[in-house]
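To fix ideas, we quote verbatim a fold written out as tokens:
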Amino acid sequence: MWPFYPTGTLPRDFLADYSQHFGVMEIDSTFCQIPTAKMVDVWSVATPKRFGFAPKVPQAVTREKRLQNCAAEPDALLSTMPRLRPERGPRVFPFDASFRVDSLPMLAEPLTGLPSDLRYAVDVRRRDRFCHMLCRLLEEHHTVLVLAGLNYLRELERVSTDFDSVRLLGRRSGTPGDFSRVRLDQKPELTLWPGRIREYLRRGLMVFVLANNRFQGHSTATACALLAETTGVASKP
């Protein structure tokens, strides 16, 4: 498998090169620390106007404070991230498997009053237990439920607003730490998504699809393969 970045590309140029082939990038670092305005401006300058970002809401909100007394963190993130073309990517609330049905009333609080010009997505890993209740809540706040490509999660066809978000995830124990090439054959699962994505697009939805390295061992190769299957256009030679 070819490496994604051309030989000799400096790390500071990775983002600019990546943005020439894809339309969105997840920002995992915001899960741990809110970026400075200067850092966000560097990302913005390095990417074209058609490119978007999907930053994660800090873990202090979803993991540590468990949605209680946490208004400061989303406010700080949202005050910085609109500099990154807010219409081009969702702000993601990531929850772990301990998020339960009795947490739903608490989720309504941070979703209430969010700026209407941004997109929001909620990533929940226990939705087989309360998916319909959650979907109703998300519809009220024009927020989507992330469709996560994990075998123990039941996918939903219900769309709660004018866009959708897909994350292709893999198990940490199943993929080595060297992400320089494809290591797992996930072609059967990948073939399930192009048709669904084309249907969402036909219905006028904007679709954000993200893949992490654990899915196959090389996320950019996964993205290229899915893009080629969905559009018929290869994004990388």
About this structure: The longest strand covers residues 163-168. The CA atoms of residues 83 and 115 lie 14 Å apart. The first helix runs from residue 14 to 18.
